[in-house]
Write a structure and sequence with these properties.
The protein has about 150 residues and is mainly α. It has five helices and no strands.
Length: about 150
């Protein structure tokens, strides 16, 4: 039970945060009310098209970051599960990516019910790539810890 609380509760908490971010308050329209004025203040001569492009890239980088953290947390939880697999194994990597992919898909499905959100398969792919990035970070920590031992 302690292992579940220590390793799986952070995963569930992070998933709840992602679910909450899929609501109307975090839509493109709402985030543009913050980012576009900041860009206009920082770069007064930048065109509206360039500002929209930067806003779009910012939102997609947030997807990568949020799902990268999810991938890291899921791998960490799977790594500490009672499974006889080696610490870094393809079944754990594949399991992590599968969980991230399925959660990203359900998150996009959830967005189909939010009027100001648009579900996109490309976002599922971006989210899964973020999960892979989180796995890369987990591998980096694992590799450095083994190298020091």
């Amino acid at each position: 039970m302690r292992a579940f609380l220590r390793f799986w509760v952070p995963v569930l908490f992070w998933m709840i945060l992602i679910f909450g971010a899929s609501a109307d308050a975090h839509s493109y329209e709402h985030s543009s009310r913050i980012i576009i004025p900041v860009l206009r203040w920082l770069f007064p001569h930048m065109s509206a098209m360039e500002m929209d492009r930067i806003h779009h890239l910012f939102r997609k980088s947030c997807h990568v970051t949020v799902y990268g953290i999810l991938g890291f947390l899921v791998f960490r939880a799977l790594h500490h599960s009672r499974n006889p697999l080696p610490a870094w194994s393809w079944p754990r990597v594949g399991g992590t990516l599968l969980i991230v992919f399925l959660y990203a898909a359900t998150d996009e499905y959830h967005q189909s019910f939010v009027p100001t959100r648009t579900p996109l398969f490309s976002d599922v792919c971006i989210d899964t790539a973020g999960g892979a990035l989180g796995l890369g970070i987990a591998w980096f920590f694992h590799y450095n810890r083994r190298r020091k031992s």
